[in-house]
Amino acid sequence: MSQFFYIHPENPQARLISQSVAIIRNGGVVVYPTDSGYALGCQLENKQALERICRIRKLDEKHNFTLLCRDLSELSLYARVENSAFRLLKNHTPGAYTFIFKGTKEVPRRLMNPKRKTIGIRVPDNKIALELLEALGEPLMSTTLILPKSDVAESDPEQIRDQLEHSVDLILNGGYLGEQPTTVIDFSEGEAVVARVGAGDPEPFE
Question: For position 117, which CATH number holds?
């Protein structure tokens, strides 16, 4: 049975953030709000938690996972980023974008695209997610909460509770959210390529 925290979207309660971080560090799988719907997350190095997320979403090994970061200070540790790309990211984070880069050896191989060796990087424009990442002190392994037989992110935390309360360890209720996915910008071959248009404005990268 998962825990269910009602957390303030603008002033997240520090006590609940601390409890959430403890659950993540203890191997937990969490549902948390972002600026593009709810997402599933776990600690970067936790293989068992990642396998649970794959079962919930029925994902195969070709799925592209994302590292959710509090800011760009962690970027060079996990991704190979040119200076021109970094400047673009600096001007458009936090925001509803996922950026694809070649991963470094710091990224667990199971998180990278097996053929392209790429990883998604994201800095969400959501207060709860950013406070969670700040307290955790490291990126969160993340994937959008899109349930099997659905093609949009889950947006209603009460419905998520009905469906996943026996599958995850914690659900952070940050209110009802929009469902629009992130805009995906692929830098893996050097130049910016708009791979998917979503909530973030693609124009600066075209």
Answer: 3.90.870.10
